[in-house]
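User: Fold this one for me? It's tRNA pseudouridine synthase A.
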Amino acid sequence: MRYFLDISYNGAAYHGWQRQANALTVQQEIEEGLSRILGAQIGITGSGRTDTGVHARKQIAHFDAETELPESQIQYKLNGLLPDEVAINSCRKVQPEAHARFDAQERGYHYFIHQKKTPFLVGQSYYFSHSLNVERMNEAAQKLLGRQDFESFSRVKTEVNNFFCEILTANWYCENDQLIFNVRANRFLRGMVRALVGTLLEVGRGKLTVEDFVTIIAAKNRTKAGRAVPPHGLYLSEVNYSEEIYL
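Assistant: Here's what I get for tRNA pseudouridine synthase A.
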């Protein structure tokens, strides 16, 4: 039987999602918990990787189990074993061929910025005190929409067949004294959101024009774009699938 887990985690204490030989990761925590519950070695496959320090409000992972247990029991027992920084929001049975990574139709991220120094957002949001023109940042963000080559915002050493992504939503908004970048697409390249945010901040500061931003997209060259902002402001916020995969 195959299951999908809906997972939230605070990534501050972890070296990202993906299991590593000499570092603590979210995947490792969940695999060890499932293995104890099911009495067998269980591996999980996530919808994608998040880097060290990046958080998730909704990460999806699948696993297979020979012993069939009620979804609610798996969720309850797993939450009892996991540290406070990791939570299982739901567990659902899915079609045997359903795949957390390859069947994902859309993914969404939020990046959080605060411009007034506050100790309560340390590790949860990026403190950026420079004055910003949010209207101009939103104007530039609209240039991201549609299917384009985003090599300028990808890590240089990454194994992908192409750099094309279809961005469906890209906008900035303010909420609870924070400035938030909301972006949703069919796929993302490694490091893409943090590079986008870093470059858009340069537009907001007046160091780049909207026309410059368009030129950077067309350049297909990472050195032309801005720096990657710190990981702790980034949240994987949604991963969506067709309802047909659920049982």
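One thing worth pointing out: The chain has two domains: 2-102, 107-238.
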